[in-house]
Amino acid sequence: MNTFRIITRNLVMVCFLTFVSFFSAYSNSPSNAEIIKRIENLNTVIELRVTEEVTTQINIYVEKYKRDSETVLGRTSLYFPMIENAIRDKSLPDELKYIAVIESSLLPSAVSHQGAAGIWQFMQGTAELFGLKVSKHIDERKDIVKATDKALDYLKLLYEFYGDWTLALAAYNCGTGTVSKAIKKANGNTNYWVIQKYLPKETQKYIPKFIAASYLMNYYYLHGLKPIEPSDDIKFTTSVKVFEKTEFKKISKEFEIEMNLLKYLNPMYRKEFIPESEDGRYYLTLPDQKMTAYIEKYNSVENLVFNPISRKRDEADFQKIAMDNGQRAAIEYVQLLSRKNSAIRDNLKDSSIIAKLKIGLTPGSNSIKLYKLKRKESLSDVAEANNIALDDLMAMNNINENTGIAPGSIIKLSK
Fold first, then answer.
1. What is the pLDDT of residue 379?
2. For residue 7, what pLDDT is reported?
3. CA separation, residue 322 to residues 233, 304, 412 (Å)
4. What is the dihedral of CA 302, 308, 311, 315, to 10 degrees?
5. Are 62 and 73 in contact (CB under 8 A)?
6. Which long-range contacts (CB under 8 A, 24 or more apart) does 152-159 make?
7. How far apart are the C-alpha atoms of 13 and 18, rounded to whole Å?
8. Helix residue spans in 106-164 (DSSP H)
9. Which contacts of 227-230 are long-range, i.e. CB under 8 A and separated by 24 or more positions?
10. Which residues 6+ apart lie within 8 Å of 245 measured at CB?
11. Residue numbers in the chain where pLDDT is lower than 70
12. Could you tell me which residues are beta bridge partners of residue 235?
């Protein structure tokens, strides 16, 4: 009898502790009312609704796969500034950048089971329709800059077709034909939430996923999530034109760069080499400290090109490099306006210092002077201020009349 009482008492205690533990965890989580209020406060062109699927997708981001979400949050500091510039250039809604989050988790080399590729997950046919090259050697769906430009063109076209951003996003996922058929089944109703049941299962979840991604990007810190920054070798890179066939294995071995890193930084090349080209149309991207040695042996500083993905080192970074290299890196600083990183809400800021930089040259030698284009500042303004002919400045930066250049872009002022 005593044994039975002891067992019963222990079972009651276990149940009580389990309940307390569950209640404690639940009480620390935001209520549905709080989540609804936060969603309603999102600034978006999408028609917002808080459905069971929306809350499920939010839970996946902020609870079930926290670590993965923190990794994605870290990538935003690398890729969102470039995407935001492209969005502004095309006068499109800023929140379209979240599509890349739900499509690929901002992973440049992402490939789906259906064959979609890149951070925007273009299918090959759609990519080629919009002018992206997909061949046995090159896959421009994985060229983040080019793919972003074409993805935004596609989204703009979809919006012009439907006149509604929610439907445009649905069509981005499943195609205009499928969305139009769903509208027909709904007796011509063009509200996404009405036609949702007539769409493929993946598209039924697409807008809820978009709302959840928007929630994550704006409120992650309220759930204790902290962005996991990419490694310095991914954040701080330099790109250069290459003219001859360039084997990744050779670069990896000679300059002690891991093959996986080399492929990550150059995802558009399908065969572990860069094809030759007479006009230098293809670029090689390396960690900035490795680029110095590569240029000295195989290339020229004149072939360096603007890399809109690379983060810019701050003063402490440059000082450390200078010390590590025994003053081989001669560095000159120019204070520039700081710019808040709109992708992250914890008041982190991009470095406010980028420079006129001498890359891997001995003191006293000619430098490549870099300049960050200010808001409302034109190339003509920069050319005049630096006593450079506008044509020379454009040629120096491979810019033509059809090339857009956004505020914050880094341009060369001298060779």
1. 76
2. 55
3. 17, 20, 21
4. 50
5. no
6. 152/86, 152/87, 152/90, 152/92, 152/96, 153/90, 154/126, 154/130, 155/92, 155/96, 155/99, 156/90, 156/92
7. 8
8. 124-129, 144-162
9. 227/70, 227/73, 227/74, 227/76, 227/77, 227/344, 227/346, 228/67, 228/70, 228/71, 228/73, 228/74, 229/74, 229/77, 230/74, 230/75, 230/78
10. 273, 274, 275, 276
11. 1-30, 314-370, 372-373, 375-376, 400-410, 415
12. none
Q: DSSP letter string over 342-361? A: TT-SS--B--SEEEEE--S-
Written as six digits, the tokens of 106 are: 């901002």
Which pLDDT does position 142 carry in this prediction? 98
Cβ atoms of residues 412 and 366 within 8 Å: no
Reduce the DSSP state of residue 132 to 3 states and report it: coil
pLDDT tens figures, 238-270: 999 999 999 999 999 999 999 999 999 999 999
- At residue 125, the pLDDT reads 95
- Look up residue 358 and give its two tokens: 């001498």
The confidence score (pLDDT) of residue 4 equals 52
- Is residue 356 within 8 Å of residue 332, measured between CB atoms? yes
| Chain length of the chain | 415
Q: Which residue has the tokens 């033509």?
A: 400
Place of tokens 């001498």: 358
